[in-house]
Design brief:
globular; Phosphogly_mut1; about 15% strand; six-stranded mixed β-sheet; phosphoglycerate mutase (2,3-diphosphoglycerate-dependent); 8 helices; EC 5.4.2.11; alpha/beta; isomerase; Rossmann fold; phosphoglycerate mutase activity
Length: about 210
């Protein structure tokens, strides 16, 4: 089966968290998954299995519980509870600084809609006390280069469960996107993105495994 051949990198954004549900800026805070979020992770796992991706050699995740739990749900469903797993804060979500914990609508009232839009959707303008996507990439990409990419280069099948902006950082490099392009890239919670790569880390194919209806 083609799904079992060659190097594989699967990226999964964590399922919906309690703070996602409340429309809050979350960043490095540690809310749990909602029931919907757990269901998203389970559906993602089922979609992986249905596409033939049931064996991985290693997994990576952040130190945040919502990503850890998303990964655990996926690994249990595909029968790989004991998979070698590395956790590192380099893969944490973007730090939203002073916006953390604020409702996004309330933040627009407090700081102005245009300013909040700039903080959320520009590549290199950080919110007060926080990180821009550019700063997030500066911690994610060295970790990717030193820990994840070498495992892919060995022909291994690698699973990464992380967050919207830490995954955007990797996708930007994998797909050669500009800062303007990556900030417009939306990642659905719990939906696996499957990359087949050559030994140099070049993308041969990409498949987004959408939620089953």
């Amino acid at each position: 089966m083609a799904a079992s051949e060659g190097s594989l990198l699967v990226l999964v954004r964590s399922g919906e968290s309690e703070w996602n549900k409340l429309n809050l800026f979350t960043g490095w805070k540690n809310p749990a998954l909602t029931e919907k979020g757990r269901g998203e992770a389970l559906t993602g796992a089922k979609n992986l299995a249905a596409a033939g991706y049931t064996h991985f050699d290693v997994a990576f995740t952040s130190v945040l519980q919502r990503a850890n739990d998303t990964l655990a749900i996926i690994l249990k469903e595909i029968g790989q509870d004991d998979l070698e797993t590395f956790k590192d804060q380099a893969l944490n979500e973007r730090d939203y600084g002073d916006l953390t914990g604020l409702n996004k609508d309330e933040a627009r009232v407090k700081f102005g809609e245009e300013q909040v839009h700039i903080w959320r959707r520009s590549y290199d303008v950080p919110p007060p006390g926080g990180e821009s996507l550019e700063l997030t990439a500066k911690r994610v990409l060295p970790y990717y280069a030193s820990h994840i990419k070498p495992r892919v280069a060995k022909g291994e099948k690698v699973l990464v469960a992380a967050h919207g902006n830490s995954l955007r950082s990797m996708i930007m490099q994998l797909e050669g996107l500009s800062g303007d392009e990556i900030v417009k890239t939306e990642l659905e919670t719990g939906v696996p993105i499957v990359y087949k790569l050559d030994k140099d880390g070049k993308v041969l194919s990409k498949d987004i495994l959408k939620h089953q209806s």
